[in-house]
Amino acid sequence: MKKSLVLSFAAATVLTFTACGGNDGGNDGEGDVDTNENATETNDSEEGEDGGDEASQPAEDQTLIFARGGDSVSLDYASVTDGESSRVTQQIYESLLTFEEDSFEIGPGLAEDWEVADDGLSYVFTLREGVTFHDGTDFNAEAVKLNFERWADPDHEYHFADEGYAYSVYGTQFGGFQGDEGHVIDEINVLSDYEVEFVLNETLGSFLQNMGMSYFSMTSPAAFEEYGSEINENPVGTGPFQFVSWSRDDSIVLEKYEDYWQEDLPKLDSVIFQVIPDNSARLTALRSGEIDIMDGLNPDDLEALEGEEGITTFERATNNIGYLGFNADKEPFDDPEVRRALNHAIDKETLISVLYAGMAEPAKNLIPPDYLGYNDEIEPYEYDPELAEQMLADAGQEGLEMDLWTMPVARPYMPDPERAAEVMQANLSDIGVTANIVSMEWATYLEQTEAGEHDIFMLGWSGVNGDPDYFFGNLLHSDAIPGGNRTFYRNEEVDSLLDQAKTSIDEDERAELYMEAQELIHEDAPMIPLVHSIPVLAGSERVQNYVPHPQTSEPLTEVELSE
Amino acid sequence: MLAYTIRRILMLIPVLIGMSLITFSIIHLIPGNPAQTILGEQATPQAIAQLEEQLGINEPYLVQYFDYIGGLLQGDLGQSLRTNADISNEIWPFLAATIELTIFAMVFAVIVGVNAGIISAWKQNSLFDYGAMLVALIGVSMPIFWLGLMQQWIFAQELGWLPAFGRGNPRDPVETTTHFYLLDTLLSGRMDQFWTSFRHLILPGVALGTIPMAIIARMTRSSMLEVLRSDYIRTVEAKGIPKLSVVYRHGFKNAVIPVLTIVGLQTGTLLGGAILTETIFSWPGVGRYVFDGIGNRDYPVIQSGILIIATMFVFINLIVDLLYSYIDPRIKY
User: Fold this and answer.
1) CA distance A511 to A497
2) What's the pLDDT tens digit per position in A197-212?
3) So what's the architecture of A60-73+239-316+535-562 in CATH?
4) Residues 418-447 of A with CB under 8 A from B
5) Range(s) for CATH 1.10.3720.10 in chain B?
6) Cβ of residue B239 closer than 8 Å to a chain A Cβ
7) Does B31 touch chain A (CB under 8 A)?
8) Is the pTM higher than 0.80?
C-alpha cells in the first residue's frame, strides 16, 4: 500500500525532473545515504551501549553529526542561557569540577582536588598540571582568576558589557556582581601556579555544584587578548574538541584536540552540530542516515521508532518540573483549601499517557526525585474528582469559573501545552469548574504571569546544576517576587528554611531543611506539580557510549562510531 | 529607455522609506519584550532590566527609528540583539542561499511550466493536456510544507536518492567565497561537491517551484491558445513552416508578455514563500534568518531581513517592467 503511493508520487515528480536535465541515478561520492547499509539485523538494543559489541568495529570515518532544532546563540558560554549554546561549548570548554556522566554528583575536572575551610568561607582548588588550551598556552591559576574576575566585575576589560553581553547566570548563582550586596565571592587568590583560593563573604551551599556548571568554564587568557569581544565566535578552551567553523543557522564544526590531557581521548575525530529546524525533517534525516543523533523527538514519534532497524533511543534523566501554578494573590486561590481541592482534580496519569507517550513521571514535589533533599514521604494529592468537588463545595466555591493560562510554546517539560490545557480543562469541568483557556504570545505570557495578571497558569522549570536551591529559591521564595515566583506564594517559615539551606554547607542538614520545606509547601499547595518529563533522543545504532546527561548537554569525549 | 529606467529607479526611494517605516512600526507594536524573550522563563527581573538597557530598547520609538535609518544610510544594518553580530556582516550567506534556491526554483518552474503550457495548448484536449493541467491544478493547491515532507519521505528516506536537508554534505564542507555553492564549487574545481550541491537543491527547489510552475503552465497555455487561434498563425502555417517552429518561434513570442508578468510576480512571492521551504529543508536562507529573528524578537534582524526581501521584490518588478518595453516596444510609459 505504502509502496504504490510512493511509486505514483515518484512518477509524478520524476516527470517534472526530466525537463530540467537532472539525471538522478547515482548517489555515490558523498556518503549521504550509505550508512543505512551498515545497519545490522539487531533491532533489540534498548541501551544503545551494548548490543553491538561482538560485531561492531570502530568506523573509519569518526565524524559524528548531531542534529538539533536551533542554532547556538553564542560560544561565549557565560553570556547565554540557552541549551543549544552549551551543547557546543561543553565540547570546547571545561570547568574546574565536572559532574558524573549521568548525574549531578560532583567530581574532579580541571581541578584535581579541592579543600573547603571549616567555616565554609574558603575553597582551595589544586589544578591539574600539563593542561593546555587549544592555542597552546598553559592552563593555570592565573587563568582561573582572570576568568572569574571577568564575569564578576562589570568594569573588567573582558566583561564586554558594552557589546551587549550579559553574564546573568553568574549573577544568579553567586548572588550578583562585584559591588552588589549579595555577591558572595569576596576575593580570588593565586596561591601558586596550580593552586587558587576563593574567599567568600557568606557561605553558599551550592558553591561546589556551581563550579561544575559549564557556564563557569575556562577560556584561554591569550584568546581574550587576541579576539576581544569576538571571543563568542572564536572559542578557545581546554576541552576534548577544538573549534573549526560556524555557519550560522547551519552547522558548527569541531575537531579533535590532539593534545587533550586525557590519554587516547576523545575517540571521535570531529563533531558537527547541524541545525534542522523541523522535527519531522530531522527524523527523516536520521532514518536516511544523514545524521547520527537527533534531539527534539516528538513524543508521538517515539512509538514508531521502537524496534526500527538501525535506530536506537537515548533517555535523558529527568531534571525538570512542569506545573500548574495558582495566583495566591487572587481570590479564591488565596484560600489553601481551594488550591488543595484543585490538586485532587487533575489526572496526571492520563496527561502522561496522552501527551508524553509515557515519558514522564507524575510529580508530587517541586524538585525531581533524585535531587538532594527530595521528600519521598510526601503523600501526593490523589486524583479524586469527587473529593475535589466536595472540598470546593466546603470552601464555598461551587460553580467556580477561571482563566487557565496556557503556554504558547512547547518545552521539554510541556511538549504540547494546548492539548495539555484541554485535558486539564476537561478534568476541571468534571468537578463543575469552568476553565477558559487563555493563550498569548510567549514573551507577553512571561511578562504578564510575572506581573500576576493570571488566575492559574502553566509553566515549568529546568535544573542547571542539580541543586535544589535553583528550584526552590527561584520559584517559591518570596524574594523571587517579581520574578520566578509567579504563584505569589509567601510563607515566612518556608523562606527561612530555604535561606538556611542555601547557606549551609552541610549536605545532611541541607537535605533535612529542604524536606521540611516541602512538607509546608505541600500543605500550602501553591501549585499543582504535574510531571517530571524524560527527554528522549534518537540516534543511529552506530553511536557507542553516548550517555545523555540530565543537564541538557554532555561532553562527547567517550563517544565513538561503529561500522 | 534610459530616462524611463532612471525615473523608475528614483521612484523606489519613497517606496523603500515607506516600507522601512511600516516594518519598523509593526514590529514595535508586537507585544513582548525582547530582553525577556532572549533570557527566557528562567530570567530574573534584574537581568532583564540590565539587558534592556544594554540593548537600548527602552529608548523612545522615534529615536530608535532614526538611529536605525541613520545606520542604514551608512550601510549599517545594525546589530542582532540576540547574537550581537553585525547584521551586514552575517546576512550575505543567508541571502546568497535564498537567491540560489529561488533561481533554481524559478528555472525549474519556467522550463517545466512554459513547456507544459505550450505543449498543452498545441495539443489541446489531448491526454497530455488533461494530464498536465491536472498536475498544475494539484500543484497550485498543494501546501508547500506537505509537499516538502512528502518529498523527503519518498526521495530521501524511502528511496535514498536525494539528501533531505542542507546545502551540502556537512562532512565535506564547501569552501565559500561567493556563498553561491554551485558557483563556489565550480570555482574551486570540485566537481564532486558541485554535484552534491546540485542534488541538495533539487528537493527544496522543486518544492518551492511547484506552485509557480503550475501557475506559469496555466498562464502559458491560455495565452498560447489565444495566439494559436489568431490569423497570422494560420498564415504562417499556410506557408508550410514546420509546426514546432510555428508554435515556439512565432506563437510563443507573442504569448510571452503575460507569462513574463507571472514569472516576475512569482519570483517576488518565492522570496517570501521561501520561509517554509527553508525551514523544512534546513536551508540556511534569509527566510529562516527572519523567521528566527521573529521568534527571538530580534528587531534589527527582522527589519533588515524584511527590508532586503522587499527591496529585492521591488527590483524584480523593475526588471520585469523594463523587460516589457524591451520585448514589446509598444509598451511605453
Assistant:
1) 11
2) 999 999 998 999 999 9
3) 3-Layer(aba) Sandwich (3.40)
4) 440-444, 446-447
5) 91-327
6) no
7) yes
8) yes
Burial A151-183 (b: 16+ CB within 10 A, else e): bbeeebebbbbeebbbbbbbbbbbbbbbeeeeb
Residue window 168-187, chain A: list those with CB within 8 Å of chain B.
168, 171-172
pLDDT band at residue B332 under the 50/70/90 scheme: low
**Distance between terminal CA atoms of chain B?**
10
Q: Does A16 touch chain B (CB under 8 A)?
A: yes
Cis omega (within 30 of 0) on the bond before B170? no
B156 with A82: Cβ contact below 8 A: no
- CB-CB neighbors (< 8 A) of B172 in chain A: 30
pLDDT at residue B253 greater than cutoff 90:
no
The domains of chain A are located at: 60-73+239-316+535-562, 94-234, 320-533
* CB–CB contact B42 A29 (8 Å): no
- Cβ-defined contact of B164 to A288 (cutoff 8 Å): yes
**What number of helices (H) and strands (E) belong to chain A?**
16, 21
Per residue in B171-210, pLDDT (tens digit) is 888 888 899 999 999 999 999 999 999 999 999 999 999 9
Helices (H) and strands (E) in chain B, counts: 14, 0
* Residues forming beta bridges with residue A245, ordered by sequence position: A253
**How far apart are the CA of A167 and the nearest CA of chain B, in angstroms?**
9
CB within 8 Å: B155 and A446: no
Fold of B91-327: MetI-like fold (1.10.3720)
Q: Which residue of B has its CA nearest to A269?
A: B171
Report d(CA A538, CA B280) in Å as an integer: 19
Q: How far is B86 from chain A (nearest CA, A)?
A: 11
The residue count of chain B comes to 333
